[in-house]
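Forum: Protein Structure Q&A
Topic: Joint prediction for protein chains with partners

I've read a bunch of threads here and the consensus seems to be that you should model interacting components together rather than docking separate models afterwards. I'd like to see that in practice. Below is the full input, 1114 residues plus whatever partners are listed. Could one of the regulars post the assembled result?
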Amino acid sequence: MLRYVALKTGRAAFVVWAAFTLTFVLLFVLPANPVDLLFDPTELNTVPPEVREQVADNYGFNKPVLLQYADRLGHALTGDFGSSVQSGRPVASAILDVLPETLLLSAGALVLAVLAAVGIALVATSTRRAWVRNVVEALPSGAVSVPVFLSGILILQVFSFKLGWFPAFGDDGPRSIVLPLITLAIPVAGPIAQLLVRSFATEFHSGYVTTSWAKGATRGGIILRDVLRNASLPALTIAGITFGNLIAGSVITETVFARKGIGRLTQNAINTLDVPLVQGIVVFVAVSFALINLFVDLIYPLLDPRMRAVVEAQK
Amino acid sequence: MTHDPLLRITDLAIDYPAGRRRWTPAVRGVSLHVEPGELVALVGESGSGKTTLVQGALGLLPPVARRRSGSIAYSGVEVTGWNDKRMARVRGNYVGFIPQDPNTSLNPTKRIGHQVIEAVRFNAPRPGTAADYRAAALESLRTAGLQDAERVFQQFPHELSGGMKQRALIAIALAGHPKIIVADEPTSALDVTVQKVILDHLAGLRERLGIGILLVTHDLGVALERADRILVMRAGEIVEHGPVRQILDQPTDDYTRRLLAASPAQHHGRLRDNTSATGLVALEARALSKSYKHVHALKTADLVVRKGTTHAIVGESGAGKSTLAGILAGFTTADSGTVHVGATELTALNRRELRTIRRDLQFVFQNPYTSLDPRFTVRRLVEEPLRAFGVPIEGRAAELLKAVALDESYLNRLPGQLSGGQRQRVAIARALALNPGILVLDEAVSALDVSVQAQILQLLVDLQAESGLSYVFVTHDLGVVRLIADDVTVMKDGAVVETGPVEEVFHAPQHDYTRRLLDAIPGRDLRSTR
Amino acid sequence: MITRRLQQPVLLLAWLVVLVVIGWAVAPQLFTSYSPYAGDTAASFAPPSAEHWFGTDRLGRDLFARSVYGAHTTLTATLLAVVIAFGIGTAVGLIAGFSGGIADTAIMRVVDVFLAIPSLLLAMVVVSVLGYSTNNIALAVGVSSIASFARVMRAQVLSVVHQDYVRAAYGLGVGRIGVMLRHVVPNSLSSVVALAALEVGTAVLAVASLGFLGYGAPPPQPEWGLLVAEGRDYVAVHPWASILPGVALAVVVIATHRISTSFRKEHSR
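Posted by a regular:
Agreed with the consensus. Here's the joint model:
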C-alpha cells in the first residue's frame, strides 16, 4: 500500500519537474535570442543595445544555460517564477489573482457536464426505444465536434442578443456566468458522455446483471443498484483528459465572453510573449493535472474492491 | 384431475435477425416440461439453441430476438409475452437461475451478503426488517453448502474461488424459495472435482426441497449421470427425449448415437492401438521449477516422453500443467531444472539455437480462435514456419491440409470463415509443416464440442501411427486421456503426484488425488453397469 | 435493424461532406466564381442570398468563397498535423510496447509529461516560440497529439503481443522482426487508424481554434477559425458572418467523427 502511494506520488513529482524542464527548454533555450522574445516584435529594431544588454542581465540570459536552469528551478520550488514582463508583477500572484474566476467557471461547468453526461448515459441505457437511444447517443459526438468558439457565439447570439435573458460580456453578477458555464460544459461533457454510454452498455449486458434479472430485479432497479456505480468508475480514468478540456475550453470561452481568468491570462501572456508568465502557467497547469491524477490513483482502490486487492498485493 | 407441471414450454420458436428482414431460427418449435422433484437435462452442443431456449423461458431474450410462436407457463400460469415488470415477480420468486460462469455473474463491487440480501428482499412475501433479511440470506448461503456463511457474507467476489462463487449464486437462486431452478451449464467453468461437488449438492437440494431442476449442459456424461429425463437438442430442435435408461440403451436418433459414441466416457481404451511406440526417449524433463512472484507454479517436476507415444499431463486449474508445457516448448524459461530433446539440452540454448530446435518441437494451442492470426489466409498460416526456415514451400500447403483431412479449397480462406474444428485442424497442419518429432498440445481439444473433439483425437492418433510422432498432451479431462495416451502424469498445485502407464494409473491409482479425479469423471459408472 | 438502415445513409452523407471539402481545398475555383480577396465595399454585410450563400463580410467579400478557399489552409494544416502525430506517435508506441522493459518505462514517462499539458496550451506555447503561421500551427497541433497516439498504439501492441497467434509465431520459429512486421503491426494498426480518423476532426478543431485566437495565417488570408473571429465583432448585428463559416467547420468535424466510428465498428466486428 505504502509503496503504491510512494510510486504514484513520485510519478506526479516527475511529471511536474519534466513540465518545468520542457518549458525551460522551449522558452529559454530554443529561441536563438531569448531576449528578443521579451520585446514587442514591432519595436524590436528601435530598442537600444544597452537596454537589451541590461534586460538580458536582469533575466540571467548571460549566464551559462545550466546555471540559469538551476537558478530558475530553485526559485520555482519556492513558488517563484519571476515577474511578468508586461505588468512587472510576480507570476505567482498574477495567476492567483484570476484563479478564483476560472475555478468557479470550470467547477460549475464540470458539475454541469457530469450531470449531462450521466443523464445521457442513463437515458440511452434505460430506454427501450431504439430511435431515442440513437438520438441520445449522437449527442456526445456532436458536443465534441462543434468548436467552442462557435457554440459560444451561437449561445451569445440566441440568449443574449435575441432573447436578452443574460448579459453578453463581462463578469459581474451570477447572471453573467450562466452562458460561459453552458458553453464550457458542452465540450467537457462530450468525452465523458461517450465513455459513460459505452461503459453503461457494457455493464448492462454483463453476467451479473443477468443474475440480477433472475433475482427478480426490475430494469430501473438494476440500472440504479448495479450499473450506475460500476459503469461510472471508468469515468475517473479520463479525469486528466477532462481537466485538459476544461483548460482548453476556458481559454476560448473566456475570450469569447471577455471574462477574466486563467484562459485569458494565458492568451495575453502568449500574445505578448510574456515568457516567465507562460512558464508559470504551464507549470501551474501541470501541477494541477498531476494532483488530479494522483488523487484519482489514490481514490480508485477505495471505490473498486478489485483494485484494492491488486494494490494490497503489491507489497 | 390434471395437475400442471412447474414449467411447461409448448412449441416455442425464437428467431434472431440475420440481415434485412431475414430471420434465422435459433429455437424451432420446442416443447418440454419439468415436474416437481424432477431433474431434466437439456443436452446440446454449441449453437444448438439451448441457451436461447433458457433465456426465452426466463423472459431474458435480448431485445433483437423475436418469439415467433409458442407459449411458456409456470404451474399453469401463462407468462408468454409478459413485460419485464410482471416477469420480475416470477423470476427469483418462482424460478431461480444459476448462470454458466460464476466469475462474471456476481457484481464485483458488492459484498456477497449484500447480493444475496437483494435476492431475499425482492422476493419476500411481505416487507421485513434488515435483521430478517440478513438471517434469511445467511440461511440461504448455508443451504447452498457454504459452511462458513458469516465470513463469505462479508467477502467480495474476487476473494472467493470459482466453486464458492457458484455456491453463492446457488444461494441467490434459492433465496426467493423458487419451485424450479434453471441451471445453464452451471459447472462448465469449474474443475471436475468441484463440478462433482456442485452437482451432488444440486441433486441433494432437489430431494430435500422437492424443487424441479432444468439442467442445461453440453456434457452428455453429466446428463446421463444426474438426470431423470434427457432432452437432446440440435439446431434448435429436440431430436430425442426420454428417461436416461432409454436414451442410453435404445437411442432412436442418429445424432444421439453419435454423441454417445463421441463421449469419452463411453470408450474403454485407446482409439487405436499404438504401433509406433519405441523404447527411446524423445523428451526428458528433470526437476523443473518455476515461480511467479510468490507463487510456486511448478515444483521440481519430472517428465519422460517415450518416442512415438503420447504422454498426457492431467490436472485441474493451478496444477502447473500449462507452465510445464510452456517450458517444454521454450515459451517460458524455468528457474531451475533441465529439458532434453533427444541429446540437446533445451534450457542451455540461446535464442538462435532454440529456434533450430523448434523444427523438431512444435506447439498447438488450446484455443483455435486466438492462435491463428485473423489476417492470414490458411495458405499463409500453414506456410509461415516453412518461410521462417527457408524450406521449399512448393505444394506443401495442400499436402499438409490433406494430412489433416481438409481439401485445397480451404487454402484461400481466412480463420474467420472456418469452424472451431477446422481451425484446430489448420493449427495442427501448421505445427506439422516442419516435420517435427514432438508435438506439445496444450488443452488442444478442450475448446471444441464433443463430436468435433472426437474427430480431432482420431486425427491425432492416426497421424501418430503414420509418422511416429511423440505427443505431450496437456488436458484437464481425464476422460480424454485414455482415448489417446500411453502414459499419464497427474499434477496438483505445481507438483507431480503420480505418473505411469495409463492402464495402471486408471485401474490402480496410487494417490488419493488421482482417485478423486477418476471418481469425478461424469458418466463413468454408467458404462460399467451397461 | 431499422437503425442500421438509417445509419448507412448518414455515413454516406458524411463521406460526401468530406469529399466535397477536399474538393474545396484542391480546386476552390470549381465551387465558387467569387474571389476570396476582392470585395465590393458597397455590398458589405449582405445577408445570405442566392447570390452570396453565406452573405458578405465588412469589406463586401463573399463569405462562401472565403470558406471554400479557407478549406485549403485549414485542411493542409490538419493533414500535416495528423501525419506528424500518427507517424511519430505510432512508431514511439510500437517501440515502447514491443521492446518493453526500461525502454517502455522511459518512453511512457515522457509521454505522461506531454499528456499533462493540455494540447491546446502546448500548441500555443510551441507557436509562440516558432512564430505565428499556419505551418507552425500544424506542427504545434501535431506535436501535441503525438502522446495520445503513442499511448493507444502501445496499449494495442501490448494486447496483440500477448495473443496466442503471436506466441504461436515464435513457436514456429519466426524471428522477432518478422513477428513484429507480419503480426504485431498489422493487427495493432487498425484501431490506431480509427484514432487517426478521429484525430482529423480534433485537429481541424485545434487548427481552427488557434486560428480563431489569431495565431495562424495573417489576414486577409482565409482560414476557418480566422473567418469566425473576423465576423465575431459584428455578431450582434450580422450573426451569419461568423456563424455560417463556423457551422461549415462543425459539419466537417461531425462527418469525420461519423466516419471514424464506422472504422471502429468494423474493427471490433
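Chain A has 14 helices and no strands.
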